[in-house]
């Protein structure tokens, strides 16, 4: 049996929670994306309503804002690239500006659209949401992270964006934690690599295999950040590297610089979309996984701080 993708894992957990809460009156809106998200059978099984608007992300998000105005929680399933780029105006004005109870489920985020190529890669989405401070931004990785995100997402109404990948994501070993931050390694006051999503798990695995002496801290929610909790998690380290599946500027690194102030943050992002290929091949090519990720991180650390 084929392992479920992260997207399928998240949607299954979300639908299970939604059917237990009649007060939300949920409705799903798709933009010719229902089959890509594997939604039809899932929604039918849970008795959840669904409207498809075709290839029109702005229309879908506008409709979702209207549903929210009528007291519903609307979930818009769209490719992350098209939901944010084509849906920018309603996201800004009708959803964030009105604090509407609308969740954009950004599928095939980052480089996970893989063979679909540059047009489908979403490497600017976090930058778009950075000034929209009414919108919560979630970046889950494995099943444990998806469970926490679903719980936090549904703990309060309001606009949100969930960055999802249509790739299988093995569960990270070790005990899970309750909160937006999770150590993938033992906690350390030495060098720390920060990141999010499936690509961070791939990088953490490569660090372990190479014996690279760094801590790895996962961000399940990138916005808002609790500066006090973040400083507490990072302790006294003065070596922070952000490895992110996003273009430089506007991503997690900028958010950390804003939250931490005087602590230097090294940003290692995607310089340019690498074209088409499998997800792991693209991560390796961009230096987000495998030996290239190890070398990128090692190159900015002090010689005495990591193997």
UniProtKB/TrEMBL annotation:
InterPro entries per the UniProt record, alphabetical: PDH/Transketolase, THDP-binding, Transketo_C/PFOR_II, Transketolase-like_Pyr-bd, Transketolase_C
EC number annotated for this UniProt entry: 2.2.1.7
Any one GO molecular function term: magnesium ion binding
Name of the molecule in the record: 1-deoxy-D-xylulose-5-phosphate synthase
Domain Transketolase-like pyrimidine-binding: 4-171
Signal peptide region: none
Naturally occurring in which organism (per UniProt): Actinomadura macrotermitis
Keywords recorded for this protein, A-Z: Transferase
């Amino acid at each position: 049996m084929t392992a479920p993708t992260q997207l399928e894992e998240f949607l299954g957990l979300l639908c299970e929670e939604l059917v237990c809460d009649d007060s939300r009156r949920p409705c799903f809106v798709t933009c010719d994306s229902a089959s890509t998200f594997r939604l039809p059978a899932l929604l039918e099984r849970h008795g959840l309503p669904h409207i498809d608007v075709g290839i029109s992300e702005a229309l879908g998000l506008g409709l979702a804002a209207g549903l929210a105005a009528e007291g519903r929680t609307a979930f818009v399933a769209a490719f992350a690239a098209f939901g944010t780029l084509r849906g920018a105006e309603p996201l800004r004005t009708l959803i964030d500006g009105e604090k509407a109870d609308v969740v954009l489920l950004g599928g095939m985020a980052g480089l996970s659209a893989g063979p679909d190529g540059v047009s489908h890669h979403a490497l600017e989405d976090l930058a778009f949401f950075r000034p929209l401070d009414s919108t919560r931004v979630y970046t889950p990785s494995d099943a444990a992270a998806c469970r926490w995100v679903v719980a936090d997402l549904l703990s309060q109404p309001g606009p949100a964006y969930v960055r999802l990948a249509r790739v299988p994501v093995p569960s990270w070993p070790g005990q899970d934690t309750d909160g937006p931050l999770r150590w993938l390694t033992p906690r350390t006051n030495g060098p720390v690599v920060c990141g999010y999503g499936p690509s961070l798990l791939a990088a953490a695995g490569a660090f372990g295999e190479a014996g690279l002496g760094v801590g790895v801290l996962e961000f399940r929610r990138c916005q808002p950040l609790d500066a006090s909790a973040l400083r507490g998690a990072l302790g006294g380290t003065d070596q922070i590297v952000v490895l992110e599946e996003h273009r430089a500027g506007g991503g997690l690194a900028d958010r950390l610089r804003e939250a931490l102030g005087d602590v230097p943050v090294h940003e290692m992002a995607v310089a340019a979309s690498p074209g088409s290929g499998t997800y792991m091949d693209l991560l390796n090519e961009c230096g987000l996984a495998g030996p290239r990720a190890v070398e990128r991180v090692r190159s900015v650390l002090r010689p005495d701080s990591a193997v």
